[in-house]
């Protein structure tokens, strides 16, 4: 249940593409859309997700929010 709650909190934010809770809920990995979220916004978004988790969930210890903004470019030479 807690894993799903963590993922749902992250997915509730704009620009979030995928979210996976890992290590029995000790870490959440959040993938954002690079065309919607720039580097500065990514830092703010990670903090906002962490704050919302802190406000809404009860848990022992801490939860690591790992936000990933990946941009891939592929070209072919013929």
Would you give an account of this structure?
The structure is a single chain. Helix 2 (39-56) links the parallel strand 2 (27-32) and strand 3. This protein has a 3-stranded mixed beta sheet, with helices on one face. The protein is of the alpha+beta class. It has 2 helices and 3 strands. The protein has one domain: GMP Synthetase, Chain A, domain 3. The chain is 36% helix and 24% strand.
Question: In summary, what is this structure?
Answer:
With 78 residues, the protein is α+β, with helices and mostly antiparallel strands. The protein is 36% helix and 24% strand. It has a single domain (2-69), classed as K homology (KH) domain (GMP Synthetase, Chain A, domain 3, 2-Layer Sandwich), CATH 3.30.300.
Tags for this model:
3 strands, GMP Synthetase, Chain A, domain 3, 78 residues
Compile the SSE list and pairings.
Elements: H1 2-11, E1 16-22, E2 27-32, H2 39-56, E3 64-69
Parallel strand pairs: 2-3
Antiparallel strand pairs: 1-2
- Strand sequence of the main sheet, in spatial order? 1-2-3
- The proportion of residues in beta strands is 15-25%
Could you tell me how far the N terminus lies from the C terminus, measured between alpha carbons in angstroms? 50 Å
Our count of domains comes out at 1
How many helical stretches? 2
Number of strands: 3
Major sheet details: 3 strands, mixed
Average pLDDT, all residues = 94
List segments where confidence is low: pLDDT < 50 over at least 5 consecutive residues: none
CATH class bucket: Alpha Beta
- Full CATH superfamily name: K homology (KH) domain
Relative helix content: 25-40%
Give the overall form: elongated
**According to CATH, what is the topology?**
GMP Synthetase, Chain A, domain 3
From the alpha-carbon coordinates, what is the Rg to the nearest angstrom?
14 Å
